[in-house]
Amino acid sequence: MLVAGCSSGNDQSRQVQKKAINTILDDWHLAASEANFERYFMHFTGDSAIFMGTDATERWTVAEFKPWAKPHFDDDQAWDFTPVERHVYLSDNEQTAWFDESLDTPNLGPVRGSGVLVRQEESWKIAHYNLSIPVPNAIVDTVVKQIDRALNDSTEQTN
């Protein structure tokens, strides 16, 4: 996996923090692939952290996300996201980090994750995560029309 990011200030300290963040994110993804519910959710700041999925309706606090995710974790594997590339950036005081990552998945294909971590005591925790499916510009017009049709169909079904 290629890891990149910006640097300033104490470069050695920043590299240590970036390594810790990469370890946390890798373990978080591994916990999902191993269906380890407790380990997966321990990586969040708490129940008010935000997880945004690929569907427009999938915006949850962790407290809301847990009941939705639990049946997936009760199977042998919740989901399997393999990092391909990740960029990590640190605030000047090294207490906040943000990242973006390209992921390979067996069911969604290539996806992108981005998020914010905060340092709590001596560890990093995920405060916000957003999962998206990157749409190539060459097909975006078609995809936008499909989304519009799907939204209109669901609106008509509820009326």
From TrEMBL:
Q: Which InterPro entries did the record assign?
A: NTF2-like_dom_sf (IPR032710), SnoaL-like (IPR037401)
Gene3D superfamilies referenced in this protein's UniProt entry, alphabetically: 3.10.450.50
State the superkingdom: Bacteria
Domain SnoaL-like span(s) in chain numbering:
21-136
Indicate what this protein is called per its UniProt record.
DUF4440 domain-containing protein
Q: Which organism is it from?
A: Fodinibius salipaludis
